[in-house]
Amino acid sequence: xxxxxxxxxxxxxxxxxxxxxxxxxxxxxIAFNGNGALAAPLIIVPLAVFRGWTWITNRWSGRSxxxxxxxxxxxxxxxxxxxxxxxxxxxxxxxxxLANSIPTLLATGAIFVLPVAxxxxxxxxxxxxxxxxxxGLVITILYLIGVGLSLYPQLGTIVSGGIIAGTAAGHSWRxxxxxxxxxxxxxxxxxxxxxxxxxxxxxxxxxxxxTFPTR
Length: 215
Fold this sequence. Notes:
Elements: H1 2-23, E1 26-27, E2 30-31, H2 39-59, H3 65-80, H4 82-89, H5 102-112, H6 114-128, H7 136-148, H8 155-174, H9 179-201
Antiparallel strand pairs: 1-2
């Protein structure tokens, strides 16, 4: 069940990414088409990790490790499906085949899902520990650190996603009934980290989110 949930989340991310790559809008210097479509996994994967893990914790309290891993594997494969989907729907040459896209599927998950999941898991575990001072101030500082790391191009944004996802999961665990508001907060913070800060850092020049050789 948790694997299917993760896979569905991942396929939604992949569908948005592929559609955005070819049909995405642009707003002045900010474009969500082409490489700008990478905003989809960068913003939505942390949200998926937060929502998935808190759902699993509530459903399988005390025995959530295996379902959590299964969810992450499903998310990994689903997000990676953007590559074969793009190869099949929008082939760019004779080498653009389903078979040739499999290594990129694995690489995409390794780039956009695994680092986020590992970092988020560490922070979530710490915030759930009674020995860690998970006060409102600490949670706020973690959110700010997550956003601030996006000042470092490419990998900084992915690390931001892990910190924000893990902090959000721990925040939700400590403040019951707040998942919806925290979900909105995650989207806003990741949008700032992925689009807002790079836009300001580049002096309002044309830009897209960080680019990676995913396809």
